């Protein structure tokens, strides 16, 4: 028999599957059936013992803003504060698809195939378009963009679409060491460079695109190097060193995304979408 969760107003949800569980963050995400409305939902439960409940409420507010601005953001249905158990519950639209990190892994050994490159560019265009819609909202950015936070629905079909999920730190200040380590912008790593709204996500997109096209994670300090006196990176890895079938134009787009100074990157997702579109019109990407 399925586990049944009951929240305020006697709303009940039958758990279908545990999608992930993170002991470190005291977080669990379920696929569940809303018994009252007979629909499939996603339920995220976060413990806030000793934490700040206000940040969880702000996450919901950021999700509402993003959903209103962009087409490919899961809808927020409800949220509850289970103050007795010190748990915060977010009920949202469940997106049935595959996360981008799994797609990247599945493409191992095929990154140089033109069909794979073309498919990845199409995905990058969709992600950039959704970010462009989000970035039109004043002060709104994701700030924790990574392959695990991007779901592809109907992958490989003509009607495939991406969804950006998990706006957990979107409404939080950009302090030192915020975000996920492998996908942090320099201003998130050390707080030494001023935040410029939207451009944290652009840096993450450069890292994600590099990984999609090569299977390789770029690392600040190894693939992107500088000294404390340098305004820009002394060296930046070139995507073409790891995938000979990527055009110079696409390589230039990634390098601009990965500029150390926020003001030197694309301003927002809309600019990035345009850059990916024109760079993909070259002979190699057709």
Describe this structure in words.
The protein starts with a strand and ends in a 7-residue tail after the last helix. The mean pLDDT is 89. The protein has seven helices and eleven strands. Helix 3 runs antiparallel to helix 5. With 286 residues, the chain is an alpha+beta fold. It has a six-stranded antiparallel β-sheet with strand order 1-2-3-4-6-5, with helices on one face. The chain has a three-stranded antiparallel β-sheet with strand order 7-8-9. The protein has a two-stranded antiparallel ribbon with strand order 10-11. It folds into two domains: 4-93, Phosphorylase Kinase, domain 1 (2-Layer Sandwich), CATH 3.30.200.20; 98-285, Orthogonal Bundle (Transferase(Phosphotransferase), domain 1).
The fold-level CATH name of the largest domain is: Transferase(Phosphotransferase), domain 1
CATH architecture designation of the largest domain: Orthogonal Bundle
For the sheet with most strands, the description reads: 6 strands, antiparallel
Order of helices and strands: EEEEHEEEHHEEHHEEHH
Computed Rg: 20 Å
Topology:
Layout: E1 4-7, E2 11-22, E3 27-34, E4 39-47, H1 53-69, E5 76-82, E6 87-93, E7 98-99, H2 100-106, H3 114-135, E8 150-153, E9 161-164, H4 186-189, H5 199-214, E10 224-225, E11 235-236, H6 248-257, H7 269-279
Antiparallel strand pairs: 1-2, 2-3, 3-4, 4-6, 5-6, 7-8, 8-9, 10-11
Helix pairs in contact: 3-5, 3-7, 5-6, 6-7
């Amino acid at each position: 028999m399925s586990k049944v969760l009951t929240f305020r107003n006697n709303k009940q949800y039958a758990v279908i599957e545990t999608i992930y569980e993170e002991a470190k963050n005291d977080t669990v995400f379920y696929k569940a059936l809303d018994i009252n409305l007979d629909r499939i939902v996603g339920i995220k439960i976060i413990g806030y013992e000793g934490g700040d409940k206000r940040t969880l409420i702000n996450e919901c507010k950021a999700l509402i803003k993003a959903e209103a601005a962009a087409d490919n953001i899961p809808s927020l249905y409800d949220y509850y504060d289970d103050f007795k158990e010190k748990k915060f519950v977010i009920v949202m639209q469940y997106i049935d698809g595959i996360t981008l990190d799994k797609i990247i892994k599945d493409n191992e050994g095929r990154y140089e195939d033109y069909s794979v490159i073309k498919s990845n560019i199409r995905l990058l265009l969709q992600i950039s378009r959704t970010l462009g819609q989000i970035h039109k909202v004043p002060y709104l950015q994701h700030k924790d963009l990574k392959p695990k936070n991007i779901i592809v629905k109907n992958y490989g079909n003509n009607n495939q679409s991406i969804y950006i999920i998990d706006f957990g730190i979107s409404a939080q200040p950009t302090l030192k060491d915020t975000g996920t380590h492998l996908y942090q912008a320099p201003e998130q790593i050390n707080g030494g460079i001023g935040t410029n709204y939207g451009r944290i996500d652009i840096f993450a997109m450069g890292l994600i695109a590099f990984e999609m096209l090569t299977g390789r994670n770029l690392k600040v300090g190894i693939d992107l190097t500088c000294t404390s006196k340098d305004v820009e990176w002394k060296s930046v890895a070139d995507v073409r060193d790891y995938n000979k079938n990527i055009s110079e134009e696409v390589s230039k787009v990634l390098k601009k995304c990965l500029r150390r100074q926020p003001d030197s990157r694309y301003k927002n997702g809309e600019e990035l979408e345009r850059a990916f579109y024109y760079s993909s019109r070259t002979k190699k990407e057709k």
